[in-house]
Specification:
Elements lengths: L24 H7 L7 E5 L6 H14 L3 E6 L7 H13 L16 H16 L5 E6 L7 H13 L4 E7 L8 H5 L3 E4 L8 H11 L7 H11 L3 H13 L7 H7 L1 H12 L4 H10 L7 H8 L4 H10 L4 E4 L7 E4 L1 H15 L2 H15 L3 H10 L3 H10 L10 H8 L4 H5 L2 H13 L3 H14 L5 H4 L2 H11 L3 H8 L10 H4 L1 H12 L3 H9 L11 H16 L3 H19 L4 H16 L3 H8 L4 H4 L3 H18 L2 H17 L3 H17 L3 H15 L11 H16 L3 H15 L5 H17 L3 H18 L3 H4 L2 H9 L8 H19 L16 H10 L5 H8 L3 H15 L4 H10 L5
Parallel strand pairs: 1-4, 1-5, 2-3, 3-4
Antiparallel strand pairs: 6-7
């Protein structure tokens, strides 16, 4: 029977690209180079959207007039004769005429040369650019078929282009094409959705279920942008919307995902490779040496090389040593560990023992403790931590330490003073002061506290507990004369000055706070140590306490960037820096950057120092109000209010209630605002003589009361409440609150028909606001303040203040065009932020997103996020259109 008679016509038809498909603009731009290249190669794991991407690219090319043929291969196409028949059929659809009577079974090399010559001659005779997409090339296994393809790639005419999609790198040589710039490559690292694409995919698939930015970030991080698992998450949330509260667990435990991975990834693997993957999956990261130690497999290096080459959901991890490190996709790693437990649960203990020994030998403390604890070897885990030299200890060990402490009997803990000190500090720093306090009391009664190597550290533990209790004066008393040993833990050497500086700032002693940090400089060699970065974050916090936003932004941006680069997105130093910098960016009206910093850092809201939780909570609520709705902001604040009540944090509770009252007034809900103000005043009555942290409780209650009095037409009484606020803000050096007091006093004086007094307050607020760099402090007061400020035009004596006023009024206009200072595609140059303009300038120079990120010292996600906002504001959909629009309107040259 003639082979052509058996061809399945659907293999020449690409999958339909529906209207709901997410266009991969980022990758399509890279594939546009195919017009000048001979070959395109797209390799990646199952479910990463290779076929959909190429179908989108085919549509783009056909709209431009190109001839594009499609060939989908399957496991039935292994025989050379069948492969050649389909290849010939696809080429004929491009207008390349070939003799259909040529068989290929048992073909000699010279016969393959004859076939290639016929294809080359036929393609050269067509006066068009021809493109052939070959999808799922991994099904081609016969060497003769590969030989045919290699000769085609090497000798095809300039107008014949091949785009090959495969799960694994095909056994073809691309080196000559790569060196000559004739190869376009997209690999497994490029294929996952970025955050913007994941957001669009989830928004589209879950139109009726609005996910918060934090949930979107969490799903994106959980799936690593793997489209197949994102689709499964959508299916799960559609069928069970309540499961959104357990996003971390729901994905990999679903039967659909288990079946998908079993059928599409594991089914065709040799048993020894599958077993190797399951055994090594107990490690969050691994290299050949560790894999061999854990699995006992002498060929571990070859196994890892195969996993990498076959794109089996394995990714390279950056590391300091030369040996390549890897990790599995998070969901795939969990899947493999589950299979291991089902296969042989007893072996996991031994595997963790081996991993713990390997990490311990290399002084990788956190990972060693983690595996020792999971192996049930609590004594070894305790010894590892206690024997660690102070220089090797960092906050990255908090998580494994807490896991160990939760399982360790107290008699073992109290017999190990160093471990006890670190344990108490860990509990105090993660918002569990009651446990640290109870341990400290028991420890002191046991007599172990008299041991010299722990006694001198106890004031730091007590101070950390006092921070969680919001008690300023005891912290200063405990730490003002505290001297750490030169070779002690970094938590002791850098933590004590940081806590003392925070306490001084809370007491309004900003100068002393900064001197404290200056007098305890961080050695250059230790600037990237995590506790050193936390101490640097304390300096940022001091400036923010004083309202000096511009200075806080200068220091805080660099500190957070280093913390993330050195210790990761979820490190303690990054968490602490994020809470401060997010509030800085929000005040500067850089709302998208503020949201990005807070996203997927929910620990800031629940398990951090009180000031960190408080700032992150209010910042998040105000972002919800700006970018979402009052209802979303109120729901969030009510949840946080319950949390702060449960941990006895009155100061954070007061800020939550005051923010709820402010939002209620914006919604014209005066009764709701009055109810919250009444609760505020009841709380404030307990703190009239408070100092330090807690001194702002009566002040914030007075501010909320003043807003209510202004809204209910009692401006004279509002002025009295504002005097209370001002009498706190001035001596405590709270610049932002001083400006707020002046602004609201101006509103009250205007209501009392006292324009001269109102103008004096406004001018004072403008002058101080300019020096501090405030923006949203003015914008958040809305239309009433805008009108008062507009009336100052031409009456401001200082030229700098006049320019500042003009910028504020412009921002008021932008804010009124849409929430958060963003317009809805109006195409107005004034709505672009300085960072967006900088990014536009760089992409106009044909810089890739990664190069832009490096040039501006920002993250790649920040570049992508800003580009998305640029597109929305300009009403365009691509980099090219954005650059064209910007040049047309004179924004860039």
């Amino acid at each position: 029977m003639h082979t052509d008679k058996l061809l399945v016509s659907t293999k020449f038809a690409p999958p339909r690209v529906g209207t709901q498909t997410i266009l991969r603009h980022r990758l399509l731009e890279q594939l546009q180079c195919m017009a000048q290249c001979r070959v395109g190669l797209v390799t990646g794991s199952p479910g990463f959207g290779k076929t959909t991407l190429l179908a989108q690219w085919r549509q783009v090319m056909m709209r431009s007039g190109a001839e594009v043929a499609w060939l989908s291969l399957s496991a039935d196409d292994k025989q050379p004769a069948i492969f050649f028949a389909y290849l010939r059929g696809a080429l004929q659809r491009l207008g390349i005429v070939l003799d259909s009577g040529i068989p290929l079974e048992g073909a000699r090399p010279e016969f393959i040369d004859e076939v290639v010559a016929a294809i080359v001659e036929g393609a050269a005779a067509v006066n068009k650019e021809l493109f052939l997409v070959i999808d799922d090339y991994q099904h081609v296994t016969d060497p003769r078929s590969h030989q045919l393809m290699q000769k085609l790639l090497d000798h095809s005419p300039e107008n014949l282009h091949f785009v090959i999609s495969s799960r694994v790198g095909p056994p073809l040589s691309f080196s000559r094409l790569r060196l000559s710039g004739q190869l376009v490559e997209l690999d497994c690292a490029a294929l996952p959705f970025d955050l913007v694409e994941s957001r669009a995919f989830l928004d589209q698939g879950l139109a009726a279920l609005k996910l918060s930015p934090e949930e979107l970030h969490q799903i994106h991080e959980l799936t690593s942008g793997w489209p197949a698992t994102l689709q499964l998450v959508i299916i799960l949330l559609r069928s069970d919307p309540d499961s959104r509260s357990a996003l971390r667990e729901m994905g990999w435990r679903s039967d659909d995902l288990q079946s998908y991975l079993a059928e599409n990834v594991m089914a065709h693997l040799p048993p020894e490779l599958a077993s190797f993957m399951e055994n090594v999956s107990i490690c969050r990261r691994f290299n050949a040496s560790l894999a061999q130690a854990v699995t006992g497999c002498e060929t571990a290096q070859a196994m890892l090389k195969r996993l990498d080459e076959e794109n089996l959901l394995i990714f390279r991890v950056e590391a300091d040593d030369r040996q390549p490190w890897y990790r599995f996709h998070a969901l795939f790693g969990d899947f493999l560990t589950t299979r291991l437990a089902r296969r042989d649960s007893g072996s996991q203990t031994e595997l963790h023992y081996r991993a713990a020994r390997w990490f311990a030998e290399r002084k990788l403390l956190a990972e060693s403790v983690r595996h020792a604890t999971l192996a049930g070897d609590l004594s070894s885990a305790a010894q590892l931590i206690e024997r660690a030299a102070p220089a090797t200890w960092s906050l990255s060990q908090l998580s494994p330490l807490l896991r160990l402490l939760d399982r360790l009997p107290q008699d073992i803990l109290f017999s190990r003073p160093r471990l006890f000190f670190l344990g108490c500090l860990a509990y105090a720093l993660t918002a569990r002061p009651a446990k640290a306090e109870a341990w400290l009391e028991q420890f002191q009664r046991s007599g172990a506290a008299q041991q010299a190597d722990v006694a001198f550290r106890l004031p730091l533990v007590q101070a950390a507990i006092e921070v969680q209790r919001d008690r300023t004066e005891p912290i200063i008393g405990l730490l003002k004369d505290f001297q750490a040993l030169p070779d002690d833990y970094s938590a002791t050497r850098f933590g004590a000055p940081a806590l003392l500086a925070i306490a001084y700032a809370a007491a309004g002693r900003i100068g002393e706070a900064l001197r404290c940090l200056d007098d305890n400089p961080i050695p250059e060699a230790e600037r990237d140590a995590e506790m050193a970065l936390v101490a640097e974050g304390a300096r940022t916090l001091c400036y923010l306490q004083a309202g000096q936003v511009l200075e806080a932004e200068r220091i805080g941006a660099a500190q957070l960037a280093r913390a993330v680069a050195v210790h990761g997105h979820r490190s303690a130093s990054a968490y602490l820096g994020a809470a401060t910098l997010a509030e800085v960016y929000r005040e500067l009206d850089r709302t998208d950057e503020a949201r990005e910093i807070l996203a997927n850092r929910n620990g800031l809201l629940q398990w951090a120092m009180p000031d960190t939780m408080l700032r992150a909570t209010i910042c998040r609520a105000r972002l919800d109000l700006l970018q979402d709705s009052a209802a979303v902001a109120k729901t969030f604040l009510e949840r946080q209010e319950r949390h702060f009540r449960s941990i006895g944090q009155d100061r954070a509770l007061v800020h939550c209630l005051a923010e709820q009252a402010r939002i209620a007034l914006l919604d014209n809900d005066k009764a709701g605002a009055a109810e919250r103000v009444a609760r505020l005043q009841a709380l404030a009555g307990n703190y009239q003589q408070a100092t330090g942290f807690q001194a702002d409780i009566p002040a914030i209650a007075a501010l909320a009361n003043a807003r209510l009095l202004l809204a209910t037409n009692y401006p004279d009484k509002a002025l009295q409440a504002l005097e209370t606020l001002d009498s706190y803000a001035k001596p405590f050096g709270r610049g932002q609150l001083q400006v707020t007091a002046q602004v609201l006093m101006a509103c009250a004086q205007a209501d009392l028909l006292q324009p001269q007094q109102a103008q004096a307050h406004l001018l004072a607020a403008l002058s101080q606001g300019r020096e501090l760099g405030l923006v949203r402090t003015f914008l958040d007061e809305g239309e009433v303040l805008r009108k008062l400020l507009a009336g100052l035009a031409g009456k401001v004596p200082c030229a700098e203040d006049e320019a500042y006023l003009a910028r504020l009024l412009e921002r008021f206009g932008t804010a009124s065009a849409g929430r958060g200072g963003e317009s809805s595609g109006t195409g107005s140059a004034s709505v672009l932020t300085p960072r967006e303009l900088a990014i536009l300038q760089l992409i106009s120079q044909a810089m890739a997103n990664k190069r832009v990120a490096l040039t501006l010292n920002i993250s790649l996600e920040t570049v992508k996020w800003n580009l998305k906002n640029i597109y929305v504001k300009m009403g365009v959909s691509s980099r090219y259109d954005a650059v064209s629009w910007a040049r047309k309107h004179g924004l860039i040259e």
